[in-house]
């Protein structure tokens, strides 16, 4: 990419899209070249030569947007949730085709981040590191009632990381004697229970509870304003071009040891 990174924002009229546009315009070394929204076609013309497309649209549109942006030759940063193994797999396959024959390190990249808040990324990372030492773990995510998916992508990402850490540590299923009212126990994400709260006045919050006999560790993060996500978004925009292929999680571009 050139010294100045040209950026297109998909979902530019939404809350996160509008905030991203403002952040890009205010950032050194970045240039906002396109605002794309619902009803607009995503292609080389509407992306206006962008080096990086940032997707903050809706789950129903995000995968198609990523494929279209890749076809236009742009790297992609994705903040829209709703991804699963199948949709991520299709993007990985697209990237393999697009990058075939390109010099090493110069291929297209896609970075899908369940959360751009640095506090949220650190909370997820700390929870995964701690999970191997606790018998029980559950996740509570709390968001505004306008959010259309539950559990949140952040909570699913957190639970999956906890589950992987437990498996690597050789831990079995967590204790749970529940016999009735299973629906009250929340969603099951790889064996980790996740509970979703939707309440007016909230923005984005997560609490990870880990327990042993006689002790409890609570990891909590709160995002009170969408401005808190912008440092992570800008970091992803600057880093995605140096990471060919698919990257899932902002923690992968942070030096967390």
**Average pLDDT metric:** 95
Number of helices: 7
Largest sheet: 6 strands, parallel
Shape: globular
Question: For the CA atoms, what is the radius of gyration?
Answer: 19 Å
The run of helices and strands is EHEHEHEHEHEHEEEEHE
The share of residues in extended strands comes to: 25-35%
**What would you call the structural class?**
alpha/beta
The end-to-end distance, rounded to whole angstroms, is 28 Å
Q: What is the helix content?
A: 25-40%
Number of strands: 11
As an assembly, this protein is single chain
Strand arrangement across the biggest beta sheet: 2-1-3-4-5-11
pLDDT < 50 stretches = none
Report what the structure shows.
With 257 residues, the chain is α/β, with parallel strands linked by helices. It is 33% helix and 25% strand. A six-stranded parallel β-sheet has the order 2-1-3-4-5-11, with helices on both faces. The longest helix has 16 residues, at 153-168. It starts with a strand and ends in a 9-residue tail after the last strand.
